[in-house]
Write a structure and sequence with these properties.
binds 1-O-pyrophosphono-5-O-phosphono-alpha-D-ribofuranose, alpha/beta, binds uracil
């Protein structure tokens, strides 16, 4: 699949295993989700625009780089929030926009309820964040909103993706780069990812 990047580093996969485990309690789930998001940030920013500069070491001048674009993180509420602190560890100056979308439990269709983005979002390096890509409905709704704001290049950071969700996003937006730690087998009849990790928002916030 084009524009699908599966990050297979063992440190990351070991943390994903902790998140999948149904015995993992809330505090460890939160901590691990945040840590995994930090590790994934390393990969997702691989092609972030940079400028070349000169720098003086104590001994001589050499060349170096600086990031030359602001970064905007856009978590999809609620579960996307659980990855933001980890990403901010590596990108402490990033702006954070918020998109509120939840999936109706019966129809599985996305319901939008909140939107707040930085003014200059289309000039920044944008990372849309949500641990779960299931039917793709929530991601598509968020991507639609961001595209309407004039954002051309969009990176989507998730943790577990279903093939159905990846297909749905790429059918409509083939240019969106999807980064995930796992491409799982399938969805069940209720739209949950198998094997997955259950309901990410509920496990994060104790609303199961
Ligand atoms: C979960 C998840 C995604 C969405 C994925 O959120 O965090 O946003 O489901 O499913 P989809 O690809 O089929 O749209 P949920 O709707 O449970 O909302 P919550 O984060 O508020 O719990
Ligand atoms: N949302 C979740 O949190 N988990 C799934 O498996 C599917 C959608």
């Amino acid at each position: 699949m084009n524009n699908l990047f599966i990050i297979e580093h063992p440190l990351l996969q070991a943390k994903l295993t902790v998140l999948r485990d149904k015995r993992t309690k809330r505090q460890e789930f939160r901590q691990t989700l945040s840590e995994i998001a930090m590790l994934m940030t390393y990969d997702i920013t691989r092609n972030i625009p940079v400028s070349h500069i000169k720098v003086e070491t104590p001994l001589e001048e050499t060349s170096g780089i600086v990031l030359n674009k602001d970064v905007t993180l856009v978590p999809i509420l609620r579960a996307g929030l659980g990855m933001i602190d980890g990403i901010l560890e590596l990108l402490p100056d990033a702006r954070v926009g918020h998109v509120g979308v939840y999936r109706d439990k019966k129809t599985l269709l996305p319901v939008e309820y909140y939107l707040k983005l930085p003014e200059n979002v289309k000039e920044t390096f944008v990372i849309l964040v949500d641990p779960m890509l299931a039917t793709g409905g929530s991601a598509l709704a968020a991507i639609e909103i961001l595209k309407q704001k004039g954002i051309k290049e969009l990176n989507f950071l998730c943790l577990v993706a279903a093939p159905e969700g990846v297909r749905a996003v790429h059918e409509k937006f083939p240019d969106v780069k999807i980064f995930t730690a796992a491409l799982d087998r399938q969805l069940n009849d209720h739209g949950y990812i198998l094997p997955g990790l259950g309901d990410a928002g509920d496990r994060l916030y104790g609303t199961e």
